[in-house]
Input
Amino acid sequence: MTDKQNKIGRRNLIKGVSYFATGIAISQLASCTGGDRVFDTGNSDIDSVPDMETQTISQAPVKLGLIAALTGKSALSGEAITRGLNVAIDEVNSAGGVLGDRQLELIRRDDESNPAKGVAAARELIEQEDVAVIFGGLDSPVSLAMLPVFHELETPYMGVWAAATGITRNNFAPNYAFRVSANDNLVTKFLLRYAQETYNVSTVGLMLINNPWGESNQQGFEEWASEYDIEITGIEKFNDEDNDVTAQLTRLKNSGAEALMLVANAAPAAQVMRSLTRIDWDVPIISHWGISGGRFPELAGDIAKKVKFVQTYSFFDTQTEVGEKVLNKLNKKFRLQDPSEILAPVGTANAYDALMLTALAIDTAGSTEGAELREAFLNLPQYQGLIKTYDNPFTENNRDALTEEDYIMVRWLGNRIVPVEAKS
Output
């Protein structure tokens, strides 16, 4: 047994009752796939677990976990992340794996965008599957809810999409959270600057999903607005299940907002678009990236193309050597014809770089033990990645490998995400 398994075994004796309850939640997690779409991941054995008792420790794979929305309205995000991770895992394994000769194996769990199911899955993956690192999905509320589990069980969390500031800037010591993704505090600064430079606005209205992710962005907008001499004339909240938000939008319109700053995932954001059409408010719409993780164009209609939103990577631009390599592998593995067919590029690109940095951390640590991996992430050698060249990407005071200099603005063109400069 590993040291982690020994620690977990002792902890299980003390906490058996609570784990029984968690087991019930896990069984529900496994059975609640419903009729929502599930994408082809390109790896039919992705959830299979080999019999560890028949393998020596040197032959046993190093297991990594993914907890993300794999079904439901945000399933596209989970598929994009899975694809990025799989391409990177294939690359690492074909080069000999990690720790000399051990292959990487991905084990996925569907959180259904539900924090409670994410928590249950995190505990199960760490305690039952002995994963070395867990990658997170789209939903900030899920990642925030899982943080106590990661820190209790001393297992690194690697965020590849959820952007809430508090995920990495948390109060845990030592901090086991790392991220190759955006940070809301930096995104809000970036979006306000874009609004000013592109539309020359002096006032904005905030339309925020009513959950911890919306709260994270509100704090960022309020912090940075004065930096660009922008007045926030109104702040409105709405819920995932709201079908009509014309009242909130009418208040923002009457407040004198010259641009609308939107923070929501695809389905609720589409309701905002429909309500905008009802009140006939022609206003610049600048959005966080939640709208890229689902069926936004289909649900919002033609107005979807008006929204400009943030991403961390585009496969349309001139590619680096790494970019060409990843693009070719995506095309071959998933039979894509051009970059427009890459699902949610932000999830794919972030996941690829996050996996490669994780493999580097495992080799740097010479171990899969959580505390040693945590230290290795803080002492990584330089790595030329897809999004950027990472030079000491993580420190004790900064757990976000990307900065606002790595952000770009894009838009929907039909069912494709393209740079804002692309023409219809």
Q: What stands out?
A: The radius of gyration is 21 Å. Residues 116 and 379 are 33 Å apart (CA to CA). Confidence is low (pLDDT under 50) at residues 10-55. The chain is about 40% helix and 15% strand.
